[in-house]
Amino acid sequence: MVPVKKSIAAAGTGRYGIRPGFLFCRTTQRKHDGYATRTQAARDLEHALFGPVGTDGDGPAQVAARLVHEQGVSCEDIARAHLNRMEMLEPKLRSFLPNSVVQGRGTLADVVLEEARGHDRTLAKLVTAEERRRALPLAGVTLGVKDNICAAGFRATAGSLALSRYAPPRDATVVDNLRRAGCVVVGKTLCDEFGMGSTTESSASQLKDVVGGAATTRNPWDLSRVPGGSSGGSAAAVSSRQCALALGTDTGGSVRQPASFCGVVGLKPTYGRVSRFGLIAYASSLDVPGCFGSTAQDCARMLDVIAGPDPADSSSAALPHPPPLSEGGYERLCRQVSGEGGDAKPLLGLKVGLVRETLRRDGTVEEGVLGAVDAASEALRGLGCEVKEVSLPAFDLSLPAYYVTAVSEASSNLSRYDGLRYPAEVEAGEGGDEGFGGRSLMAQIASSRGSLLGDEPLRRILMGTYTLSEGYGDALYKRAQVARKRVQQEMLARMVAGGGECDVLLTPTAPTTAYACGDKELQDPLQMYLGDVMTVGVNLAGFPAVSVPAGMSLGLPVGVQVIGAPFEEGAILNVAHHLERSLGLNLLPPL
Amino acid sequence: MAGGPLRRAPGPLERKANLDVTSLIIITRARTTTRTTTTTKQGRAVACKARTQSATVRALLAATLTRSAAPRDRSIPWHHARSLDWCRPSAACFASSAAAVDAPAKPVSTTEYETVIGVETHVQLDTNTKAFCSCKNEYGAKPNVNVCPVCLGHPGMLPTLNERVVELAVRTGMALNCEVHQESKFDRKQYFYGDLPKGYQISQNDRPICTDGFVDAPTFVVGTKCDAFPTTRVRINRLHIEEDTAKLTHEGQDSLAGGEGGGGATLADYNRAGVPLVEIVTEPDMRTGEEAAAYAQELRRIVRFLGVSSGNMQEGSLRCDVNVSVRRKGAQELGTKVEVKNLNSFSAVRSAVDFEFRRQTSLLEAGRGSEIKQETRLWDEQRMETKSMRSKEEAADYRYFREPDLPFLALRPGFADQVNAEMPKLPREARDDLLGLGLSVADASILSDDLGLFEYYTECVSSGAEPKQACNWLVGDISALLKEMKRDLDTCAMRPQQLAEMCQLIDGGTISGKIAKGLLPELLEKGGSPKELVESKGLVQISDEGELDKIVAEIVESNPKQVEQYRGGKDKLFGFFVGQTMKATKGRANPKMVNDCLRRALDQ
Ligand SMILES: [Zn+2]
After folding, report:
1. Contact state of B35 with A434 under an 8 Å Cβ cutoff
2. What is the structure's pLDDT at B99?
3. Claim to verify: residue B251 and residue B289 sit in the same structural domain
4. Domains parsed from chain A with CATH numbers
5. Residue B224 shares a structural domain with residue B184
6. Is residue A67 a contact partner of residue A14, using CB atoms and an 8 Å limit?
7. pLDDT tens digit string along B242-271?
């Protein structure tokens, strides 16, 4: 029995009304008792961490880091507050992979609190807030890691049975960077198998019955709906403040679409801006690690830590350099105010292109979504932007070109899951763990793949194998690459960087709001793929884009997508930041 | 697939595959008893599959994936697993399915037909680390010690190209007179097999680093007389970079190949997975097994002279596959091509081509030309024949596409020039050097065949040895002795300078050739200065005329009878006196001077 935990907090009451001292009563009683008996200080901390975002655009990550840097709150206390919140919300939401800690490493709380204490030990040696900020810029920030990204100490299943017991040998570069910056990994967030899906309903871990809880990941705004996907767990976790930040991956919209569905900011950086090392590949030429935060600023702080070249990833971009941290990095670019416009018109003169093809009023895009785009355009005009329609005729090529490319690469990336190499919970094939059932190795591999991989990966493997096959490769894969080039060139041609007129482009993030769980229509793959229509073009082009909440439709959040020229993450975060402040939406889900 | 019963050993994989990567070995073992499939396990498998997904795809897959026999649909990739492109197992692994026509009984007229041969060679590059990770690249290490998450194909890992690989590939390309491309790209070559950790091999498909070269392979045959090396030109189609696969060892009969009632274990050593290779593909320019072997030998010499590879065929550092087709002489179009693999020596290259020529011509002669199928055949060294391994219908569709994990390979400006400037001596230049020293083509051919021998020889000559004499010693007595001692030039104690010293001792009359020969075993074994050895043993030749005259006089005096006979006209007795003198001097007498002294003493 551990009676109380003494915080390392320094004296004085901070800006967020946090009283240093005894924060938590940790008892061996059941969590809810512990929750009920927590101290006033703990409740204050929770309010600071889990309350609404302030008008200055400071998100929970910024709040947490400031508490640690400036008020001496311990990372451990913050981590524990998040663990409590996870415990409280997980039965409803199911954002996280259960039993994600690698066997033999202890419980989730052991692992999380130990990592937090490690940061506290580092901070204890430092005197000033500035020193602490410089050493661990994201100290006290809790991080959810999408289950297809490797984090040492946690399983990395990518939502697949094929990797259900896979313990990665090392951190992904992005995870390593964030941990070094002070983040505490609080768990692996659920995703569609290998990132292939739009609902987060196909994680293999969801096959197991959970007594008294949700079977699949739920949308915090409406528990009968999905959080979107494939990074749905990350979006739900950030939206519900189970963690302050979360990593996702975006191959065709897997960060932006769930961000839109859950009312958070989701950033997909330029391809090559952030290392893919440690990201379990789906479609290597499209995959990008992405950021989830409650605000654009939180995403900017996260991007500051993970952007840049990585010697372990040859496809990461050496140039241009990310904005130097000494000059404020992406965070400063994000908050930037145009000189002439001042605080009233911080985006004065910025040219925003509304992509006509994404705003068809023929029923393909929901009214509520169109309304949010209108609201965003209006708000942007108010902020000083020039908003006008532009046309991207190649837009309609995006979806087929994307799917041909993605399935082709997926068929290749997934061929290593043959049931022989990585430990899985269920023994492959009918032979059970006693052997191959009298069959040859090849028959065994074939059977393992049939049973270890879910329908969507199998479907994509089949399609991808077809699109790359001799005789079809030229007709499908190579033509898709031509179309891809066209989409890219056309998109660039609209941008100032490519000789066009727009600084950024604006589109809906998704044609709809969050789907209902188990939506029958989505079981038709073509319907599901149509939902990606707004986002896939950006992946084909490799450009950066951010989804930012722009309105509510029937109680569900709606996001808009701001697309920038290559390596212009600063510009789109800047638009997102001012837009979210100007719209002033309350984005705390009613939990 | 008609595979034998296989069992996965209670797995090092299952237990450890995560962190202890060194234990990642696939083991399949023979099952001793047939196991009845338990319904409970099936039930469990079905239960875990019961998801909210359409059953059709899975049903389709289940049907296609586990179907066991041909014919097969081309569009189902899993069958490509059967492609054993990687495979150089013992030929016994494969049941013979050779065409009904075996080695022909009656000799076929070789004048009517000609063979058209192209050669594909894989050469392992002698780098410190592997092609795409930082694991050591070494032959003969304990299995699965030189492995890491990258070369084991762990999820999330990415390849990073070893620059040295590019350098060696460019060097090889230049030596083969190829065009080196400023920009090339990497592709994924995809097929399923236990030796391929990622399910694909990183290779270069449509934009290789080097193309369009040629090799002039010397075709000198010992015993023929010529002033210059006769050569045959073989055009090089391409040279590209790729990674090697894991090495599979089949214990007992192989089930992986789908043999009937197989069994035995298959062990995978991933030390070789990711070792850099260049694949060198020729145009179909060769016409005889002899020429194909000559090309392969020259290629091996080139990579050894370049320091690019050990070129050791037994260790698999250099692996040749030949494409053989037969056509009537004068015909323009090529016949049906057969690829022959598993050639572990140059003589195997020669014999396999010859066998294929006989097999294919006899089929053509018998009017059964249609039975020559485009297929892959394995060379069986024991039986000296090729056996069908897989036919074209089963051939892999490798589904190449650009490797998205690696950017285009663009050479730094000046990179190729720098490689060119540091180009070591090539075998062709070595042969020219040797001919320039006045050696015969036969001698030059032997000395240039091996880089070690050539370097030893050049150093010896540059230390002052007379070229022809040094050549004779090296090619003759020294190589014979080394063979006897089971040593080679690299490991023997005598250095080239010491051989040069020995040659000079002979030239200067200090010792005779015969004495030198007697000293060789000790010199080769222990090294040291031949001069000091000669002196310490008191073997310095007696070349002092006065001393020799004295000895000769004694001999003449003590053999009056023979002297009388000799002077009486029995000239043959001169040899007797030479022998006596040599005996008296223990062989140290200068033979020429002995003759002179004896004549003086006897003919007076
Ligand atoms: Zn390695």
Report:
1. yes
2. 35
3. yes
4. 334-398+486-571 (3.90.1300.10), 400-475 (no CATH)
5. yes
6. yes
7. 999 998 887 655 444 444 444 567 788 999
Q: Does A586 touch chain B (CB under 8 A)?
A: no
| Confidence check: pLDDT of B85 > 90 | no
Res. A12: pLDDT tops 60 = no
Classify B135 as helix, strand or coil. coil
Percent of chain A with pLDDT over 90: 71
Does the beta carbon of B407 lie under 8 angstroms from any beta carbon of chain A? yes
A-chain CB neighbours of B266 within 8 Å are 441
Asked if B120 and B258 sit in the same domain, the reply is yes
pTM higher than the cut 0.80: yes
Residues 94-123 of chain B with CB under 8 A from chain A are none
* CA–centroid distance for B399 within its chain: 30
Where a domain ends, among B361, B379, B395?
Answer: B395
Shared domain for B151 and B183, answered yes or no, is yes
The torsion angle over the Cα atoms of residues A429, A434, A435 and A439, rounded to 10 degrees, is: -70
Using DSSP bridges, classify how beta strands B318-328 and B338-343 pair: parallel, antiparallel or unpaired. antiparallel
Please tell me which of A471-485, B7-21, B279-293 the model is most confident about, judged by mean pLDDT: B279-293
Q: Please give the Cα distance from A242 to A255 (Å, whole number).
A: 17
- Give yes or no: residues B498 and B558 share one domain: no
**Do A440 and B4 count as a contact with CB atoms less than 8 A apart?**
yes
Q: With CB atoms and an 8 Å threshold, state whether A409 touches B190.
A: no
Which chain A residue is nearest to residue B81, measuring alpha carbons?
A: A442
B429 pLDDT tier (thresholds 50, 70, 90) = very high
* Domain extent for B589: 545-603
Average pLDDT in chain B? 76
- Residue A392, SS3 per DSSP: coil
Q: What secondary structure, in 3-state letters, does A290-357 show?
A: EEEECCHHHHHHHHHHHECCECCECCCCCCCCCCCHHHCHHHHHHHCCCCCCCCCCCCCCCEEEEEHH
The secondary structure of B77-129, three-state, reads: HHHHHHCCCCCCCCHHHCCCCCCCCCCCCCCCCCCCEEEEEEEEEEEECCCCE
Beta-bridge mates of residue A509: none
> Which of B536, B565, B595 delimits the end of a domain?
B536
- Taking the Cβ of residue B62 and every Cβ of chain A, the question of whether any pair is shorter than 8 Å is answered with yes
Catalytic (active-site) positions of A: 146, 230, 254
Q: Write out chain B residues lying below 8 Å of A466, CB-based.
A: 75
Q: How many CB pairs under 8 A join A and B?
A: 240
- B232 and B214 in a common domain: yes
Q: Confirm or reject contact between A311 and chain B (CB < 8 A).
A: yes
Whether residue B485 is predicted with pLDDT greater than 90 in this model: the reply is: no
- In a domain? residue B71: no
Check if B538 contacts A (Cβ < 8 Å): no
CA A42/CA A21 separation, integer angstroms: 10
Residues B505 and B583 in one domain: no
User: Is B322 found in the same domain as B245?
Assistant: yes
Contact A426 B44 (CB under 8 A): yes
Per the CB < 8 Å rule, is B61 touching A458?
A: yes
CATH number at residue B565: 1.10.10.410
What is the mean pLDDT of the segment spanning B282-310?
93
Domain-located, residue B9: no
Q: Is B73 on the interface with A (CB under 8 A)?
A: no
Partnered with residue B547 across adjacent β-strands are: none
Question: Can you give the pLDDT at residue B567?
Answer: 81
Comparing CA positions, the residue from A145, A86, A85, A152 lying closest to residue A115 is A152
| Total number of domains in chain B | 3
Q: Which is higher by pLDDT, A246 or A9?
A: A246
Q: ipTM of the assembly?
A: 0.89
- Alpha carbons B310 and B301: distance in angstroms, whole number: 10
- CA nearest neighbour of A210 among A83, A103, A106, A93: A93
> How many whole angstroms from B129 Cα to the centroid of ligand 1?
8
> Are residues B35 and A284, on separate chains, in Cβ contact within 8 Å?
no
